[in-house]
Amino acid sequence: MVDFCPDDTPQLKAWRGEVRAFLEAELPGGMTFDYDYDEDEAGWDAYLAFWRKVGAKKWIGLTWPEEFGGLGRSAIERWILQEEFAEYAAPSHPIIGMAVAAGLLRHGTHAQRLRHLPGIASGAVQWGEGYSEPGSGSDLASLTTRAHLDGDHWVLNGQKTLGTAAHRAQWMSVLARTDPEAPGHSAISCFLVPLDAPGIQMLPLHNMADGQQNQTFFDNVRLPADSLLGDVNKAWNQIWFGLGGEALDPPGPSPDPYRYRIVRMLRKVMSYCRETRHRGRPLMEDPVVRLQLAELLEGVEAIRTQYYESYSNAVTGITVGPRPIALNLHQAYYKEFWPRFAQTCMEIVGPMAQIQGGRWACLNGELEHYFRGSVSNHAGGTSQLKRMVLATRGLGLPR
Known about the structure:
399 residues; globular; four-stranded antiparallel β-sheet; alpha+beta
């Protein structure tokens, strides 16, 4: 198996121990709550309470400048923190708020950073995402939501869809077209929108894994001029692709908790196969099951190698080939592997995997819920879109 040992100094080993001790004290046994696919009120309360504790230690914005609610720590310390959280089965922090923070750190004004980053860093303020539209999902450059200047205010009109957990948020990052004459992505701007502003209506959009996304309507929503994040008409490169601006956050991505969840689920299924007997012998000894598990392990190791590569690329600035190749190859592989992985696990465990609770539920019903979530991994674009970007931008092939 591929291994990566970031804690190669006594200081980093001590840091890992501090993170692990915090998790064992504040979240004994872990928590399987997933903000994408869970609407249990008690679960949400526990989830937000946990992340407020993390925020109180300034670990959400661990590497941010202290002025904005962080601790100014290193990228490798962030990696260790997120690796421990993912391995321990801590619920992932809503990624939307972290994406907004990344845009603020690069392109926000000082006033915008002071206003918004401490709320994200403390866990007190949640953000929704206003990017996709009914006719502009993977083809985001075709979005039709518009914003125009009226005196010293922007006026926002349009509709957004697939707003994951936006009904739990106080703010939304919204992409809108600000030049009706310019084509495609060259006229898109980003706005920071308070969800209690007049003219906003939100309707539920339930997904098949028990979560709620949303449709959000903007009807002449007036926003002050300082709601604009970055430059007018430049959001495609600045916000969507995270280019330019000030690099206030040290380079290096964090381990992806969703990909770590695949690793944890594989361990659970393998343990189930060791403990469960079929026709008088452990399920693990069945040659078909062994082949299936070997294929899953191969895929998991490929994913682990990919995020190690992403970290190396970010820290060293050295990539093999154009940047879109590695980025979109990794995303396309993961988006296709996750549902295949979940389907194979369901086949290994069998029909009992469909039971969600009670004495007959296998793996506490977690696998069935995980399977339903796996078919909804559209965030950031479908695997087909990632393949297209890989082909056109990475390899220079015609559309």
